[in-house]
Amino acid sequence: MKILSILLLTFTIALSACQPAPANLPEPENPDSTVTSPSLPPDTSVGSWREESPYAVQPGDEKLQGGNIYINSSELLTLESYPPQFVLSVSGDLPDPCHQLRVKVTEADSENRIYVSVYTLVNPDAICIQVLKPFDINIPLGSFPTGEYQLYLNGEKVADFQS
Per residue, what are the HEC states of the chain? Predict the structure, then answer.
């Protein structure tokens, strides 16, 4: 019985460790400490990704702090459709379950470069279990006018492709 009580107490503590903090948090003293990511391109996100994805920029993100992300692999997929549709498949790990995954995708610039930023945000006051949380997402990029394009993920070139 004593072992069961200890296990129940341990389980309860572990479960409550990742509970979100109250919504009425004080503003940070240093506004520069809340960043989305220093390497993000200007916010020219593709509209449909911004509106429909759970990983899109959310209201209140400016109050969270940027965190690390560990990208293990990325691959550009071409769907068999006309016109061709492109999807960026990314897998990796979040530092812990309290980190929230975010994605920004820009329109192709004048040199046909497309920038995808995958990053995390976290409440700096959250207490969380220290274990990596794997993720595997597919980021729809859509179709593009005929031409040659370059795809960048977090500032590094992932692929050259033709549409």
Answer: CHHHHHHHHHHHHHHHCCCCCCCCCCCCCCHHHCCCCCCCCCCCECHHHHHHCCCCCCCCHHHCEEECCEEEEEEEEEECCCCCEEEEEEEEEECCCCCEEEEEEECCCCCCEEEEEEEEEECCCCCCCCCCEEEEEEEEEECCCCCEEEEEECCEEEEEEEC
pLDDT of residue 61: 87
Rounded CA separation 159/114 (Å): 10
**What is this structure's pTM?**
0.67
Find the domain containing 88 and state its range: 39-162
Question: What pLDDT score was predicted for residue 31?
Answer: 36
Residue 137 lies in a domain: yes
Answer yes or no: is 14 within a domain.
no
Domain count, the chain: 1
- Nearest by Cα to 99 from 118, 121, 119, 117: 121
End-to-end CA gap in the chain: 66
Residues 73 and 90: their CA atoms lie apart, in Å, by: 6
Determine, yes or no, domain membership for 110: yes
Q: Tell whether the model's pLDDT for residue 58 goes beyond 90.
A: no
At residue 3, what are phi and psi to the nearest 5 degrees?
-65, -40
